[in-house]
Write a structure and sequence with these properties.
Blueprint: H1 7-23, H2 29-53, H3 57-70, H4 72-89, H5 91-132, H6 138-157, H7 164-185, H8 191-199, H9 204-225, H10 232-245
Length: 246
């Protein structure tokens, strides 16, 4: 079996290409393609040399691994240089890309808090159901479980650009249900919370304020990531370039 068809070589080249895909993320497409073409050509030349030298697949894989480890700093320096160049040549697009990353971090963190709150209140409600056998909370626990599941699905969908708007939209719906059913579940199993909710006329206000704020956040994120024929960031960048030319 040739070196190029061996499992060791394929496994190592896959690792190299995954690393390349990671450190070229968010970089200009042309620069990324040039970098990947250079890397692919280098791997091909390496395997041709290895086969002519009579090296074993395991030896080739080890040599590629060593080269990859030695080149990590160079790869990171290349990425830093590309980002610096992008920031200098096209500051608007760079700024919008950075804002998108910040928005994703905020939405993900808040969405994670919604999931944690839903899981916490569901756990308390199921514990109460197990202790008392009160079937009156069965419907509430089911609704809370579905809401927490929907919020989890929305959180996972944020991980891909193409489904990011779906995740934000799911969180718009899920957070309202989680807040509503979560606050209702606090009535069970906690006498202090129960007494406060029944004796205070203002207790619904925090619930509605929280649900409203979360709805605005996730709705804004949905609009920001909503797909169109041409991304909003591209349209803004083109408008800026046209303004510069005029």
């Amino acid at each position: 079996m040739s070196v190029a068809r061996s499992a060791d070589y394929r496994r190592m080249t896959s690792a190299v290409l995954r690393w390349a895909a990671w450190y070229t993320r968010g970089i200009d497409r042309q620069a990324t393609n040039d970098r990947l073409d250079e890397l692919t050509s280098d791997l091909y030349e390496h395997v041709v040399w290895a086969e002519s030298a009579g090296l074993k697949p395991t030896e080739v894989a080890r040599s590629i691994r060593r080269r990859r480890l030695r080149g990590v700093l160079d790869d990171l320096r290349w990425r830093r240089a590309q980002l610096r160049e992008a920031r200098t040549n096209d500051p608007l697009t760079f700024s919008l890309g950075r804002n998108d990353a910040v928005a994703l971090a905020i939405v993900f963190a808040v969405g994670l808090a919604v999931v944690i709150f839903g899981a916490f209140t569901l756990t308390r409600l199921l514990s109460y159901l197990g202790r008392t056998g009160d079937t009156a909370v069965t419907t509430l626990s089911g609704a809370l479980a579905l809401s927490a599941l929907l919020s989890t699905v929305g959180l996972v969908a944020l991980g891909w650009k193409r489904t990011r708007f779906i995740g934000a939209l799911a969180l718009v719906i899920a957070q309202a249900a989680v807040v509503q059913f979560g606050f209702s579940s606090l009535l069970y199993g906690s006498s202090s919370v129960n007494a406060y909710m029944y004796n205070s006329e203002l207790w619904p206000l925090p619930k509605y304020a929280l649900a409203g704020a979360l709805a605005l956040l996730f709705a804004a994120a949905t609009l920001w990531w909503w797909p169109s024929r041409k991304p909003a960031r591209t349209r803004l960048a083109e408008a800026a370039h046209q303004g510069d030319r005029s």
